[in-house]
Amino acid sequence: MSSIIQLLPDHVANQIAAGEVVQRPASVVKELLENAVDAGATDIKLIIKDAGKSLVQVIDNGKGMSVTDARLCFERHATSKIRQAEDLFSLCTKGFRGEALASIAAIAHMEMKTRQDQDELGTHIVIEGSKFISQEVAVLPKGTSFAVKNLFFNIPARRNFLKSDTVEFRHVMDEFQRVALAHPNIHFTFYHNGSEMYNLPAAGYRQRIVGIMSGKTNEKLVPVNEDTEIINVQGFVCKPEFAKKSRGEQFFFVNDRFIKSGYLHHAVMAAYEGLLKDGSQPSYFLYLQVPPNTIDINIHPTKTEIKFDDEQALYAILRAAIKHSLGQFNVAPVLDFDRDSNLDTPYHYKDLEAETPTIEVDGNFNPFTDDKTNQHYSKANSGSGYSSGSSSSSGSSYSGYSKRVEPTASWESLYVGLDLDNAESIESSPFTFENEEVTSSLFNDDEIEQAGQKTYQIHKKYIVSPIKSGMVIVDQQRAHQRILYEQFLLNMTVNQASSQQLLFPLNLFYSSDEMSLIEELKPSLETTGFVFEKAQTDHIVISGIPVNITESEVSLVIEQLLSDLQEGIPASSYSQNDTIAKSMAKSLAVKTGSYLTEKEQDNLVNALFACKDPNISPFQKPTFITLRVEDIDKKFAL
Where does residue 520 rank: exposed (0-12), middle (13-18), buried (19+ CB within 10 A)? Predict the structure, then answer.
């Protein structure tokens, strides 16, 4: 029987490896940028077209490659970063497995130009689908240039799985931001379809963060700095009042490598305990330096996850460092409150003892005696040290606290002139008293019909409305979501949304990637009633808002919308409208715990059943349930 196991050809093995290394154009951007950083470049240019589907080009001024290295770099498991297995536990570079260039060359048209500083001529290589097309000597500048064209040209199925250009461009931008944030000492330039997206000169950490995030990022940052034997923590966290609903601006860098760690993220959230609203996420840019032999970075294909030797110690140090920074810069409440120097004891009173005041009480004084008796007591007390020192015309003196009381008539005088006939008429006059009779039922049918109340709110969450067969219990939040969702969707479909003009336009600041999202969604938002006066690189000016949105809710609605669309904008316009309508309905719907008047309850129930699909919310949750009288009878059955 012939053997059934055989070795795969190199081009097939490279395509399989490409499935792990290259998932989308952003993966190519990540690998090429990291190679440029490892080459010691101080100036790196990234040029893409059609979100990287047509072209991804990275140009650097690094040390370049010789003729032999230029040819070997496209072989599988060929790398200059490690020599033996022990090197895996002391890595200080980005790429080390030697699969990136071979995998990229297997699924794209690739062109490389490289020259070392000491060489007069460089090497120009062209590869298509792992096949060497040409290798020539050329006059080139110092450094290396990789151009990847027509990604997945020989794997149509993989190319069909790519998202829209907007979504793929956002992934490319994320990878560029991660590498640029990790290396602020390198000058980065980013071009997309001929337009300059970023031009980041070499600077410090704060300047690089502000340059990438733009907006008013500088005033949000709180520095963090802690140096211990096992870890060095540097970076910035944002103030709690600038927390967002999305987790977009959260960056961990370990030894200048971007990572994702839910464990360390929990440490950051623990440091913000008591400072954030429910559902809010803080922004942070934290740079951790640990000994290379204490981490393992080879546990994930994309190297975005790291295994630490002592995670508990790192957790405690990171949490304490952030908490200390928040308290040091008066962001978090501290125990040592500021003292008011005016309340301090003067020096010349420091050693003096307080004098106990003497109290003298006249035990014979009676406020209920007549005026003459009071005058007698006052005269008797005039010589006991309570005299005011002044004498009247009669020569008598009065105490400082005595007061002459005018004599009043006796209480019987209040009833003088009251006739018995009038008293009898008063007693016989018809007075109405409040009826405190306890009825046998909680709700009287006659009273309900007279008041016109047909709905009742339970626990500020559900609305109960009676019907012929029983009752309907409506979830007020889900019902309002359905109502708003259909209203927004109708306004965007017929493009007849009404808006209210603001007396003073709103200036809202956002990061660069959020501004690109808003720019993409601007036509759809305008159909809902938003009026954009102008849009700058870091902020927007809104002069009109939909009629069912208050001015204070505008920032919350847009923030929720950006959070919902963080993973990408739908390709079709209808899907965009649907997503926007759902997000705005979720933000503006009446929340559980809100009190509704009887009229609001009636309007909510009537509007729900006037919808096209009142049974479910926009998020496929039931909006109401029906409870029949038969079902209630069964509960009371013996």
Answer: middle
Give the three-state DSSP class for 485.
helix
Sole residue written with tokens 């040819």? 71
Query: Residue 158 falls within a domain, yes or no?
Result: yes
Looking at the domain assignment, is residue 411 inside a domain?
Answer: no
Contact assessment for residue 580 and residue 616, using Cβ atoms and an 8 Å cutoff: no
Dihedral class, residue 330 (left if φ above 0, else alpha if ψ from -120 to 50, else beta): left
- Angular region, 253: left φ>0, alpha ψ -120 to 50, beta rest: beta
Place of tokens 């949304």: 497
Domain final residue, candidates 313, 328, 343: 328
| Separation CA 20–CA 24 (nearest Å) | 10
Least confident of 184-193, 215-224, 434-443: 434-443
Amino acid letter at 548?
N
Burial of 80 (0-12, 13-18, 19+ CB in 10 A): middle
Residue at token pair 């290589």: 125
Query: At 226, which CATH number?
Result: 3.30.230.10
Which residue, among 8, 14, 57, 43, has the nearest Cα to 192 in the 3D structure? 57
Are the CB atoms for 618 and 481 separated by under 8 Å? yes
The burial of 494, by beta-carbon neighbours within 10 Å (0-12 exposed, 13-18 middle, 19 or more buried), is given as exposed
Of all residues in the chain, the percent with pLDDT exceeding 70 is: 75
Whether 418 maps to a domain, the answer reads: no
Give the amino acid at 168.
Answer: E
Q: Residue 475's domain spans which residues?
A: 458-626
Q: What is the mean pLDDT of residues 423-430?
A: 51
> Does 210 lie in the same domain as 130?
no
What is the per-residue pLDDT across 554-602, written as a single tens digit (0 to 9) for each?
Answer: 888 888 888 777 655 565 556 778 888 888 888 888 888 888 888 888 8
Mean pLDDT of 80-91: 56
- The two tokens of residue 547 are 């009629």
> Which pLDDT band holds residue 384 (cuts at 50, 70, 90)?
very low
Task: Name the β-bridge partners of 445.
Answer: none
Q: Is the pLDDT of residue 67 over 50?
A: yes
Q: Quote the CA–CA distance of 316 and 226 in Å, as a whole number.
A: 12
- Distance, in Å, from the CA atom of 624 to the CA atom of 482, rounded to the nearest integer, reads 11
- Residue 327, classed as helix, strand or coil, is helix
pLDDT at 402: 47
Is 399 among the domain residues? no
Q: Which is nearest to 58 in space by CA: 132, 14, 111?
A: 111
Task: Decide if pLDDT at 190 tops 50.
Answer: yes
